[in-house]
């Protein structure tokens, strides 16, 4: 049996020997291969280098893959830009295939039917279909409503140059004698605001509960005053003169 003093001495020697193995001085003094063989480590210099090479290869592959993805994304963005040659081809194909977009897209490289249709609408915007009403037409419209009622398609046929919707909008928003000329009240504003929060911008439904307030008037009232006053939002279509 060892005495306590002998045990302490042996324990201290073990600590010193372990510290020597792991100390930076021991590593600096010996080459790595000698250090490995002396202390029977589970790896060697070749394995370390192979592991490092593998990591480098994986990193290089990832960088190359990222560069490829970036290049593909840039190519996609370039493809989205239409040029004059494509526009001319699109006009020719539209006439040839009579607006059949699936057929047109077959002759437009790297373009699908939806892209061709959207581009066509952009380079050929619809003509202004607004109708400038004369006093004679207004009088005629009021008389037709009195005779036929609100049968807008029949009324439109009596004009020949307007649609049923144009006749309806003109009468309801401008010519109807029941339209209120008085200023808007607080109660009307609150009703419009409540209905907008509940049902959204369903102006026809809202106007049906406001006698003398057509749908177009209700919509204009909301965007020009109520939205700014009670919701704290500016009208994006309002023109501010300096």
Mean pLDDT reading: 76
Distance between the termini: 104 Å
State Rg: 41 Å
Reported CATH architecture of the domain at 186-231: Orthogonal Bundle
Principal-axis shape equals: flat
Strand-residue proportion: under 5%
Low-confidence spans: pLDDT under 50, at least 5 residues? 14-30, 235-242
How many beta-strand runs? Answer: 0
Q: Major sheet, described briefly?
A: none
CATH fold-level label of the domain at 186-231: Arc Repressor Mutant, subunit A
Q: Residue share in helices?
A: 55-70%
Structural class category:
mainly alpha
Query: What is the H-and-E element order?
Result: HHHHHHHHHHHHH
State the CATH class of the domain at 186-231.
Mainly Alpha
* Total of DSSP H or I helical runs spanning 4+ residues: 13
Domain Myb-like: 74-124, 125-175, 176-226
GO molecular function, one term: RNA polymerase II cis-regulatory region sequence-specific DNA binding
Pfam family, one: Myb_DNA-bind_6
GO cellular component, one term: nucleus
Comma- or semicolon-separated keywords:
single chain, 242 residues, mainly alpha, Arc Repressor Mutant, subunit A, 13 helices, disordered C terminus
Strand and helix map with partners:
Elements: H1 4-22, H2 24-29, H3 32-39, H4 45-80, H5 84-97, H6 101-106, H7 113-123, H8 135-148, H9 152-159, H10 164-175, H11 186-199, H12 203-207, H13 215-230
Helix pairs in contact: 8-9, 8-10, 9-10
């Amino acid at each position: 049996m060892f005495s306590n003093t002998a045990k302490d001495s042996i324990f201290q020697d073990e600590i010193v020997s372990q510290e020597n193995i792991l100390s930076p001085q021991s590593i600096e003094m010996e080459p790595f291969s000698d250090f490995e063989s002396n202390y029977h480590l589970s790896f060697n210099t070749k394995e370390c280098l192979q592991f490092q090479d593998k990591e480098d290869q994986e990193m290089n592959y990832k960088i190359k893959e990222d560069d490829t993805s970036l290049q593909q994304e840039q190519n996609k963005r370039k493809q989205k830009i239409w040029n004059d040659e494509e526009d001319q081809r699109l006009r020719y194909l539209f006439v040839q295939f009579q607006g059949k977009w699936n057929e047109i897209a077959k002759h437009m490289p790297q373009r699908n039917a939806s892209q061709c249709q959207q581009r066509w609408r952009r380079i050929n915007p619809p003509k202004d279909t607004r109708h400038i009403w004369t006093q004679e037409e207004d009088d005629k419209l009021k008389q037709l409503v009195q005779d036929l009622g609100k049968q807008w398609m029949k009324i439109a046929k009596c004009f020949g140059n307007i649609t049923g919707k144009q006749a309806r909008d003109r009468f309801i928003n401008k010519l109807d004698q029941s339209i209120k000329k008085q200023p808007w009240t607080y109660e009307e504003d609150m009703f419009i605001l409540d209905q907008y929060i509940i049902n959204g911008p369903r102006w026809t439904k809202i106007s049906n509960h406001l006698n003398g307030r057509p749908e177009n008037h209700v919509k204009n009232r909301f965007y020009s005053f109520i939205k700014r006053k009670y919701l704290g939002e500016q009208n994006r279509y309002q023109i501010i003169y300096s």
